[in-house]
Records
---
Amino acid sequence: MEESTRYFLSIADKIEKAFRENRELVKAILKKINEYSKVLESIYGKDFRFKIMNFCGTHEWTVTHFGIRSLVPKNIELVAGPGCPVCVTPSHFIEEAIKLALDGITVYTYGDTYKLRTLNSVKGYKSLSEVRGEGVVKLVTSLVDAIKDARKTNRESVFIGIGFETVAPGYASAILKGLVPENLKIMSLVKLTPPAMFYSLEILREKPTEPPVMGVIAPGHVSTITGGKAWSVVSENYGIPVVISGFEPIDVLLSILEILKQLVKGEAKTVIEYKRAVTWHGDIRAQRIVAKTFRVVDDAWRGIGFLPKSGLRLREEYRRYDAFEELGVKEIKPGEWGYDLPPGCRCAEVTLGKAKPTDCPLFMRVCTPDKPYGPCMVSLEGACAIWARFGSGGLAEEIAKELSLTI
Ligand code: SF4
């Protein structure tokens, strides 16, 4: 192992320990959280639930895996948001990818997209994993893997580019540096997160029986690119605190504490907890190359529909890399979009924070991580898959009691 890699791993290990293994600090944070929750209870009443949306799938993983719901007071409700790109990729585009594979084009895909089931079958196939025997479907972990393989095989190929703002600079850089070979096209399905945040906040406010979202834990990795400034519009327009958070349990607890503190003080600011990775202005170079390579489009989100200015497609200048232009992949137009979740699946409500995975009658009955029925059960960032693996409350609550961490 190289010296630089060893050094990096030792730092990563120290950070992980500092943000996971400090029980005294956790107790001190929980004490303050409890104090603030009591003040809020005295203002809003005993039955009021303070809904905090953890936007991103990785935060949902931290919250569920570490049993954070069982640590915080009962009047604080942590709800998952739409931060799982695989969950929200429309069925239509996976159906298009299946068609390409059946036409003999090599399809490069991430592992979770590979298992994603479509609404409609294409010649009897409903996922790229099913089509593997008939067409060429290869699993990759990045565009770089796809580039290397496409150069080697020289076959006509397509890379399915799913992700949020974090993946776009890598795609842009590969294109601008001329690394993508002629025989490889990119199906850009990159989604932009702020429009989904606005939509989920609006829709929760529209449901009168539900308490509104009172604070947002915003995605740390997306914000390394966009900067904290991308979220200030949320605190300004909705009058709620937003905290850009890291992904360790102490990061998340500190973010909850900051939200409650602001609510007690009557403030609504966007602040960065994840200062070790995020700045206010973000990665300006990355933002510049993304703007040069991609155009912003109104895009469809699975089960949800079209959200304005929520997706990225390649600009005309780069059409020679564009699967939509060069391989005839069909775009969906707003008027053509149809509800694309399988019958009974409540994934759209789960991703919008309107329902918990356990509210779905199919959860762990028809739909399991081994045999996912709906898209939220596929990816490790999907709320249903996370709840299926780690549960919520229950065992975590018992362990917290044993460690004297409950309030
Ligand atoms: S458990 Fe499965 S079917 Fe139910 S909402 Fe989640 S993904 Fe959809």
Note: The longest strand covers residues 305-314.
---
Amino acid sequence: MSEAIEAEQSFVDKFPDEARIVRAALLSSFLALALGAIFGIIQTLHRTGVFRGIISSTDYYTSLTAHGVFLAISFTTFFLVGLFTWAVTRSLDRPLIDIRITWTWYAIMAVGMTMTGVSILAGFVPALDMSADVLFTFYAPLQAHPLFYAGLAVFIVGSWIAGADWFRTFLAWKRDHPDERIPLQTFMVLTTMAMWYIASSAVAASVLIFLLPWSLGFIDQVNPTLTRTLFWFFGHPVVYFWLMPAYLLWYTVLPKIAGGRLFSDPLARVVFVLFLLLSTPVGIHHQYLDPGIAEGFKFISMTNTMFLLLPSLLTAFTVVASVEYGARQRGGTGLLGWLTDLPWRKPEFTGMMLAGLMFAAGGFSGMVNAGMNINYMIHNTIWVPGHFHLTVGTAVALTFMAATYWIWPQISNKPIFSRSIGLFQVVLWFIGMALMSNAMHAQGIMGVPRRTAEPEYSGFDYPTMFGGFEELNIQIAIGGTLLFVSTVLFMANLVLTMGNPKVSGLAESLPPALSGPDDAPRVLDSLRLWVGIALTLVVLAYALPLAAIIQRGGLLGPGVGTYPVWLAPALDALAGAVTPVVGAVGEATASLVEVGR
Ligand code: HEM
Ligand SMILES: [Cu+2]
């Protein structure tokens, strides 16, 4: 594709049908963001005791479920499908195979999320006798109305069809370009989706085989350890499902905004392959405190987790190097002097840079979560939300908002209403989150629990570590309020942008990397190989723990016959077959288990 053509035509000029679906997906995402932010401010003011007049403490879980599901599942995934549709179409420079299929998966996802959302919000209306106060982790023994699980299943199926849509479009491209390297953005989409298929299969199984039949009353109980393990099988890689679209933007769009080029295309590919390989076999690190899982398995999971540092550090290096290159192209000099030659007035640039900075901080607190022994200090305290508001709540959310200032004009031909408000908004998010998240970490070290409407437990004093409990509460409340205001400004700016008249000349092209794909070995593009290795690692990490959990606790909890009955011999056979296959690794694991005991 020639640069000249792209410079004239914006994305929406070239691909009007795809642009429409990208806009629909992003708007669904921002609707979820707005709803989530409303519950965010409600629960912030509630749990800090600043204002408890909006909901009663008994409704706290309804609010928290709405906040978690709308933000961590709906906002992130809808943005992802919009961004990936843009990225695949743009980087392959061809329309999707059949736009009716594209609208179909979008509609399926929207219907699924509406079902889930209605079941959660119904919890506020006592007359409806419907509730889904199970939090975004939705594991037993908390039980939701069947509509909640059914909606989630429908939503996930929609995302699978979306992935298939992009894979088919890629295969069609491949037939026309048999010898070309996969364009980088498409490579990123495909590896992310391969990981998503592996990860989401476990949660789909958990919902369809256990949780939905249980909430419908077909079965009396489930094995809570099993459903928790299946959730976290999905629950760790899902954080990469949130992060990889942000990475796509940092690698392919941020260098361009900084006035430079991506430093290394091969390194970016290596990072995405590493995420595909390493993000699933680590989920047990969320279960360090679960009884019923041997310590040895937890130790293996911790070790695998530490390997995940590698792609994160590679990313930090590559992105900073690309931005520095951009600054030097703009005349920047000196060891750090180049930092002043960056386009800090652009909301898309400053937003993404601040998001990356917060991600580094989140990485440090994540190391504490990941260490088996220090995890005991902060497990289930407000430290944990403090951590993930830096990662998904800022590295991802702020990158998405910042990227919108860059991408929206190209998918609509409408200039942003006010770029100054945009700049103010992203900086406000950063300040708000710095306050809220830092105070959450500090309270967590004092032992203040998460997921608690009134954590002050009247009559109980938290030992003072840094600031007092009340002082930290004020910081959380101020930070949360700034975040809410920032979200309102973002939404208002976007709505006003949509009212702007259409103009031309908003097209942006993406320059090629300094070190291009041809510098990378071809094997990097061999998706089959990487998926094969990823699946093997998953089996190695999970076969034995799952077999042990089922053996000890039963498929449906202790004392209950396996259901359906015909599954029992099959499972026994499976457990029998799996053990020899894992062979040597099994031996090693077993000895670790012994050590753990
Ligand atoms: C408007 C800005 C936001 C505010 C004021 C806010 C506030 C909060 C607070 C105070 C909690 C802890 C409640 C508790 O444990 O008792 C929380 C939990 C949570 N937040 Fe946010 N948040 C915001 C934005 C976000 C964003 C952008 C995301 C993700 C994209 C997010 C995802 C979550 C999740 C997943 C939980 C955990 C829910 C649970 O424990 O089940 N939040 N939020
Ligand atoms: Cu994790």
Note: Residues 236, 239, 285-286 surround copper (II) ion (ligand 2) (CB under 6 Å).
---
Amino acid sequence: MKPFAYAVAGAPADAVRRISGSPGARFLGGGTNLVDLMRLGVESPDLLVDVTRLDLDRIEPVDGGGVRIGAGVRNSDLAADPRLRVAYPMLSQALLSGASGQLRNLATVGGNLLQRTRCPYFQDVTKPCNKRSPGSGCPARTGVHRDLAILGASEHCIATHPSDFAVALAAIGARVHVTGPAGDRTLKVTELYRSPGEDPSRDTVLDPADLITAVELPPSGPAHRTSLYRKARDRASYAFAVGSVAAGLGLTPDGEVGEVRIALGAVAHKPWRARLAEAALTGRPATVEEFRRAAGIELAAAEPLPDNAFKVTLSQNLIVAALLELAGGEAR
Ligand SMILES: Cc1cc2nc3c(=O)[nH]c(=O)nc-3n(C[C@H](O)[C@H](O)[C@H](O)COP(=O)(O)OP(=O)(O)OC[C@H]3O[C@@H](n4cnc5c(N)ncnc54)[C@H](O)[C@@H]3O)c2cc1C
Ligand code: SF4
């Protein structure tokens, strides 16, 4: 590993100042992704600015009923928060489905959101990869792509975003607070991530010196409280998703869909908010036929490759199974 300097930031502005104008500097959260990438030679920073000692480790209510989660909160602490387990079950379930207990003890909210793709070519510096080395090509298209994207990809990259947590946040409608050289700003989680387009080297719209300071959840509604996260993976634990769904459902007294929230994981460069399926379901009866119809509408735009075509059916089945479970005895 290339030698690097290490500094502990005392305040968010200090962290931003240390990274600004230093292309070789990186923020360090729990290090569970960044340090792995340094060992592989994918990342070779000359300065790590530790942001885990900032005053960003609280989970607190905000005016109007939402919740603000500091970017330094560890994934284990967030998953265990009793208020969030009741108000947003899909969030706790998504966190607990990821990595291992030891990793979740280290991993932070900010680091989880900005973890990099697990595409095998991205992690192997002996191979071309447009994301790691722009213009070098995308061998995944004709090579190993079983775990890669079926929605929103480009000819330049078919990587998927690996975070389970981000999928739940997309379904919840969370927002991300950022401070950077240009000041403070807030954006929706669904606006944080980019499609790969012609420049897959950038995963998000953030600049390198933008520090995530918090994630904010909206007030908990029926489709937040009646929600779940389901993940399909090759092993029962300690494995990234092959497909996943975060879903929430609020029914009217007549058994129709009043509010529905659906996001898919492991299918795109970003957590995929299934807005077409949501629109197709709203106001419709909560029946298995309607759930299937909506899932089909969402996946109609899929452009799978030979070895990941199974993800189309898998994602549809995840949506239908999640909604049936949420509707319980009321689904016909
Ligand atoms: C074996 C293994 C299995 C795993 N399985 C899963 C899984 O099933 N599901 C899943 O979702 N994840 C999984 N993970 C990934 C894990 O969740 C991430 O490694 C972790 O969440 C990253 O958080 P961190 O704080 O350690 O980030 P770091 O590694 O410290 O940082 C990651 C990136 O975020 C940047 N960063 C950190 N904090 C901030 C901030 N506040 N503002 C701006 N930038 C910041 C860093 O510069 C870096 O680029 C797994 C990891 C391993 C090693
Ligand atoms: S899919 Fe993206 S990350 Fe993977 S090899 Fe292609 S360009 Fe690189």
Note: The pocket of iron/sulfur cluster (ligand 2) is lined by residues 117, 119, 121-122, 129-131, 138-140, 148, 157-159, 200 (CB under 6 Å).
---
Amino acid sequence: MNTALIRIEIDGQALDVPNGISVAAAIARAQRPFRRSVSGQVRAPFCGMGICFECRVRIDGIAQQRACMATVREGMQVMTDD
Ligand code: FES
């Protein structure tokens, strides 16, 4: 893994994160919350391998992306409450 830092945005906040980490790791590293369920419960990554869909976020305008399966890219825009 290339450990150089790249810049992404999470919920509009610019963050420098190590290149090659997952979006879920970047969100956790930034200590940002994940989405809430329709009943208001806080959700967060559970399986970490693309099965549970608990880590869904919007990435570059595309909804329902699994944060645990996506790798950060320079300039990526992530919205967690989606
Ligand atoms: S944590 Fe289960 S799909 Fe991402």
Note: The chain has a mean pLDDT of 94.
